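Exercise 7b. Backbone tokens:
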């Protein structure tokens, strides 16, 4: 696989960043994961806007020409998808921008320090087998900071929570803060209670997932009742459905929570309907018009 690093396209094995990179030393950077299908990016504009917000919030100035609103990042992603033989089927584009390489000080390096820009692509094997039977999840305390809305590479609480899930044989760990369900370690969480879909509002407590946003739109288009309101853990246990969303997992129904069944213990109708709607949108937006 070829990757892009600071102006160069090179084999992944040859791509290396400095030990003084602030991403390495401090987790001082942001990232994005965008879906591609048949070589086309899905909802690239929304991902780039989130990236732009993150860079602004962290005070990282993108290198000249690499502003998320410009075309350079999209051109690099296109070229990598092409060079890596990913013009058919499902793929992911990973993009990371750190504050760059500088002498180790906690405060920002001198103005003009070039940020590190890294992109790579890989084939996506969607977890359809898990989706078919419904995922298993565990709950765990949300130990993260107060700006979970920023997609920074500082993911240690998420890493620890995900490992806890893996150790328990679960697909995902769902964070609970002060008795309230926030989101998953790498997913947003939706809960169906009395026929209405509940999800945590897009505050600083959660990452404003792009899939979350699209699923909310798809639900509204279908006349489903949606409430952007946080759900206490005890209500989660009585929910008829629970599902997760993310770029790589799409809509993932949950069958078991902390060892007990969710609803019927099978993927529920709301999750199934929204997953079908998301796939339809994905296919519509990434299908090339036939050559004339
Ligand atoms: C903490 C967290 N929440 C939610 C999501 C889902 O976001 P998206 O739908 O943009 O992939 C992710 C994705 O990685 C995440 O890390």
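Sequence design result:
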């Amino acid at each position: 696989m070829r990757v892009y690093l600071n102006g160069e396209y090179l084999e992944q094995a040859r791509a290396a960043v400095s030990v003084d990179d602030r991403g390495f030393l401090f987790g001082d950077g942001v990232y994005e994961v965008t879906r591609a299908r048949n070589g086309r990016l899905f909802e690239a504009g929304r991902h780039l806007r989130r990236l732009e917000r993150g860079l602004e919030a962290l005070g990282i100035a993108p290198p000249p020409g690499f502003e998320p609103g410009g075309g350079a990042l999209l051109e690099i992603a296109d070229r990598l998808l092409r060079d890596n033989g990913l013009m058919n089927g499902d793929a992911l584009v990973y993009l990371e921008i750190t504050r760059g390489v500088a002498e180790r000080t906690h405060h920002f390096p001198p103005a003009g320090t070039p940020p590190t820009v890294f992109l790579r692509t890989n084939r996506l094997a969607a977890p359809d087998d898990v989706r078919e039977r419904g995922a298993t999840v565990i709950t765990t305390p949300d130990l993260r900071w107060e700006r979970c809305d920023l997609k920074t590479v500082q993911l240690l609480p998420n890493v620890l929570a995900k490992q806890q899930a893996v150790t328990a044989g679960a697909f995902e760990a769902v964070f609970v803060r002060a008795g309230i369900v926030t989101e998953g370690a790498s997913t947003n969480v939706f809960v169906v209670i009395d026929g209405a879909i509940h999800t945590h509002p897009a505050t600083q407590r959660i990452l404003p997932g792009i899939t979350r946003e699209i699923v909310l739109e798809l639900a509204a288009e279908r006349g489903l009742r949606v409430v952007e309101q946080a759900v206490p853990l005890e209500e989660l246990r009585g929910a008829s459905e629970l599902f997760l969303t993310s770029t790589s997992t799409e809509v993932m129904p949950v069958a078991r929570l902390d060892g007990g069944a969710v609803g019927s213990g099978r993927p529920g109708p709301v999750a199934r309907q929204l997953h079908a709607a998301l796939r339809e949108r994905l296919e519509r937006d990434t299908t090339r018009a036939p050559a004339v």
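Instructor comment: The longest helix spans residues 269-285. Helices lie at 22-26, 44-58, 72-83, 128-133, 156-167, 210-221, 233-236, 269-285.
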